[in-house]
């Protein structure tokens, strides 16, 4: 194992650590790790990301469920349309995208490059949200009812995002659960982890039928990520969530800028 591979496997622990501390954000790290450290093709990297983040988040969600932090009614409302969206996009939409994706005369943009650029811009959006570090106000309807229709539509949109770039979408799910379901932030984070876990697995199932998996690489990486989430859940008792979110936001911003610069100048 060379130094670069050692750094990559060490990063797996950081992925789990972030999910355990922040309740999400793992997919923001896994795709760049797979592409830039291990040299895995972009589309396969998003597939691997779905498996790693799904498995790691599932471990975290079990802890939240046992402590009764997860709102299962809200989970079902958000998750069912999201599951359908992510599966259909991974099974049919992503494989159907042309390569090159854009062609203007002699200038073209490869499908893999376009996906990385889109992922990087999503990271910029996520970084901005985390750096602002302002919790949304509870946004239940005036009559006190949860906005189930809006939750379902948001689930469709997040599922599409997950399907296209292999990101769990936790940075979008948590604010929506607070604004549209009126959940306290700690319950929103716990519910989000469960949604991310199942969303990621559904997307992975849409891929596994037509992708050759390197299980000898993927399973050890996932095991280290699971080790990280246990460490993260322990440390979360001592780390202020707002400071963590803001610091992680600056880190995500740095990675996103690096990805954009690298893709543009290569």
UniProtKB/TrEMBL annotation:
Its main location: membrane. It is a multi-pass membrane protein. GO terms for cellular component: plasma membrane. The chain crosses the membrane at residues 12-37, 43-62, 74-94, 114-131, 151-179, 185-205, 217-235, 247-265. Keywords: Cell membrane, Membrane, Transmembrane, Transmembrane helix. It is found in: Cell membrane; Membrane. It holds the Pfam family TauE. InterPro entries: TM_pro_TauE-like (IPR002781), TSUP/Inactive_protease-like (IPR051598). Belongs to the 4-toluene sulfonate uptake permease (TSUP) (TC 2.A.102) family. This is Probable membrane transporter protein.
């Amino acid at each position: 194992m060379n130094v670069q591979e050692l750094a990559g496997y060490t990063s797996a622990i950081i992925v789990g650590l972030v999910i355990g501390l922040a309740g999400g954000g793992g997919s923001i790290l896994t795709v760049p790790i797979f592409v830039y450290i291990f040299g895995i093709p972009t589309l396969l990297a998003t597939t691997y990301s779905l498996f790693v983040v799904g498995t790691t988040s599932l471990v975290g969600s079990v802890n939240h469920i046992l402590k009764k932090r997860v709102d299962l009614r809200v989970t079902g409302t958000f998750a069912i349309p999201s599951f359908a969206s992510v599966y259909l996009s991974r099974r049919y939409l992503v494989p159907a995208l042309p390569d090159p994706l854009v062609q203007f005369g002699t200038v073209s943009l490869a499908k893999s490059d376009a996906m990385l650029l889109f992922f990087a811009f999503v990271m910029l959006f996520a970084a901005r949200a985390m750096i602002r570090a302002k919790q949304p106000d509870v946004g239940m309807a005036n009559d006190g009812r949860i906005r189930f229709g809006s939750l379902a539509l948001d689930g469709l949109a997040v599922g599409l995002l997950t399907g296209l770039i292999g990101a769990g979408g936790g940075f979008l799910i948590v604010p929506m659960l607070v604004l549209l379901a009126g959940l306290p932030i700690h319950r929103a984070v716990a519910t989000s982890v469960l949604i991310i876990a199942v969303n990621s697995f559904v997307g992975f199932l849409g891929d596994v039928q037509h992708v050759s998996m390197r299980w000898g690489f993927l399973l050890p990486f996932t095991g280290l990520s699971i080790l990280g989430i246990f460490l993260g859940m322990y440390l979360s008792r001592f780390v202020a969530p707002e400071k963590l979110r803001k610091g992680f936001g600056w880190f995500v911003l740095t990675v996103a800028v690096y990805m954009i610069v690298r893709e543009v100048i290569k």
